[in-house]
UniProtKB/TrEMBL annotation, chain A:
<dbReference type="Pfam" id="PF00528">
    <property type="entry name" value="BPD_transp_1"/>
</dbReference>
<dbReference type="GO" id="GO:0042918">
    <property type="term" value="P:alkanesulfonate transmembrane transport"/>
</dbReference>
<feature type="transmembrane region" description="Helical">
    <location>
        <begin position="119"/>
        <end position="138"/>
    </location>
</feature>
<protein>
    <submittedName>
        <fullName>NitT/TauT family transport system permease protein/sulfonate transport system permease protein</fullName>
    </submittedName>
</protein>
<comment type="similarity">
    <text>Belongs to the binding-protein-dependent transport system permease family.</text>
</comment>
<keyword id="KW-0472">Membrane</keyword>
<feature type="domain" description="ABC transmembrane type-1">
    <location>
        <begin position="78"/>
        <end position="258"/>
    </location>
</feature>
<dbReference type="GO" id="GO:0005886">
    <property type="term" value="C:plasma membrane"/>
</dbReference>
<feature type="transmembrane region" description="Helical">
    <location>
        <begin position="144"/>
        <end position="163"/>
    </location>
</feature>
UniProtKB/TrEMBL annotation, chain B:
<protein>
    <submittedName>
        <fullName>NitT/TauT family transport system ATP-binding protein</fullName>
    </submittedName>
</protein>
<dbReference type="GO" id="GO:0005524">
    <property type="term" value="F:ATP binding"/>
</dbReference>
<feature type="domain" description="ABC transporter">
    <location>
        <begin position="18"/>
        <end position="250"/>
    </location>
</feature>
<comment type="similarity">
    <text>Belongs to the ABC transporter superfamily.</text>
</comment>
<dbReference type="Pfam" id="PF00005">
    <property type="entry name" value="ABC_tran"/>
</dbReference>
<dbReference type="InterPro" id="IPR003593">
    <property type="entry name" value="AAA+_ATPase"/>
</dbReference>
<keyword id="KW-0067">ATP-binding</keyword>
<keyword id="KW-0813">Transport</keyword>
<dbReference type="InterPro" id="IPR017871">
    <property type="entry name" value="ABC_transporter-like_CS"/>
</dbReference>
Amino acid sequence: MSSPSAALARPAATTGRPLVRLPKTRGFRAFVGLGVFFLVWQLLTTTGIVDGFMLPSPIAVAEALWQMAIDGSLWVHLGASLQRVAIGYLIACVVGIALGLLCGWWRTVSDYVRPVIEALRPIPPLAWIPITILWFGLGDAASYFLVFLGAVFPAFVATYTAVRSLDRNQMNAALCLGAKPSMLLFDVLIPASLPIVLPGLRIALGIGWMCVVTAELIAAQTGLGYLIQQSRTLFQINNVVAGMVTIGLVGLAMSAALEQVERRVNAWAPSERL
Amino acid sequence: MTMTKAAAAAPSGPSAQIEIGNVGKVYGTAGDGAVIALDGVSLTIARGEFVSLLGPSGCGKSTLLNILAGFQPATTGRILQDGHPITGPDPSRTVVFQDYALFGWMTVQKNVEFGLKAKGVGRAERAERARALIDTVRLTGFEDKYPHEISGGMKQRAAIARALAPDPDILLMDEPFGALDAQTRVLLQEEIARISSEAGKTVVFVTHGIEEAVFLADRVVVMSPRPGRIREEVLVPLPRPRTAEMRSDPWFVSTVSELWETLKPDWQKEEEVS
Ligand SMILES: Nc1ncnc2c1ncn2[C@@H]1O[C@H](COP(=O)(O)OP(=O)(O)OP(=O)(O)O)[C@@H](O)[C@H]1O
Ligand SMILES: [Mg+2]
């Protein structure tokens, strides 16, 4: 396992002097990737390959964003969306993790509950919208519910999988060393599960973020989804794309932040090495 | 208590630490696909004795060890530890597993401290006692490494230190060196010979290596499969602690080859089945 191959695997990078020395951090590469993306987009629109009426240039979008940032409307909508996703996601985590633990731990519970969950899971949040409006009307509650629906299943699946894949021998080792239930939970069960649970929760947040925008397109008076919808009716295509860009960048920031947490917490786990 | 044939050969009386009386284990429900893993196993193990359980794959060695550890109940018969029935895992009987079962999210130091923490030993004393044990298994300098950062042999040393930490009466080892290369195996056999005679623990050591079984044990208990039974017992007259030279002792060499001759049919049958 601890072979010298790790040291050998890296080819000697000192032979020959590269013209430009690029920093090798992940953050820098992400920055370059995004930069190139926006650059290509800008070129496509300025050269006229893509009609500016069909897709505004990044600069036009940035201007629209700046305007909305100055007049404050961007922050109002962003704040509304973030608050909705936070609440819906929290409820989804509590319910998803609790159900995952119950089903993972007790085979009988799983036999009863999992078919129900697996039958509800394929129904897309969009299909829930009519009944959501019927139940909750056009308020925040409808958004919470849709975010919950989007996030609860990945949270459940991750927790269930994590509990099912716990190493029996590790549990037995803890038991024969005299671990009481609290130690079994906090020193064994939880840390052993996190490498599977945390990526699941990150995916759940991403889906929740998509759902809140979907909900706001239809059932809200604020939020980034509402901003897009309203701008569309006013033919403000720049604002539409500005809303989309905000959604994308916020989603990117959220998953980057969670990935950072994962890398810290799960540094010991096989998938986090390299 | 009537003296059975099996018990007659074994030391018994006040020094008996483990009494296995006519233990049977059936996996699955009787009828459809039930496996008789153990059938009428009786064995008395004295305090401080080192017993090797030797036998081909599938003869129920792990099953017997797991029942001794309290991880699973016997279907029939009874097992007493110092006169009291074994009902579940207990830090007076700790286990060393073939796949180490170390806690990957804890350093070597924290792994060894686990059993002490479970006992309620204070932080400072815990650290000190763990360091002493890490020294015993010759891992000093690797306290702050995580299991994935050390070799298989070192992992097993750490697992042995962890199992010794709660100061158990009985050490149960299930093919602890099965996953190691030949050289590491021999080195660790000598370590275990040294540690077990220094610590004066009762040891039950499961293996299917004939040499290893004879080299380490005061008594080799040979099992045969389908159903799992005790076939014969061999008392090893060599003094302890065992040292490397004893491997060339004429008695050792002839006993190992005799055992090989008697076990060959069982081993061959196992090859054909699997
Ligand atoms: N949980 C289980 N459920 C059903 N059958 C089992 C279970 N565990 C073991 N068995 C069966 O019981 C028998 C004894 O298994 P056991 O693991 O005790 O053998 P072993 O001597 O330890 O073998 P090995 O040397 O391969 O580890 C085998 O036939 C095995 O298939
Ligand atoms: Mg086994």
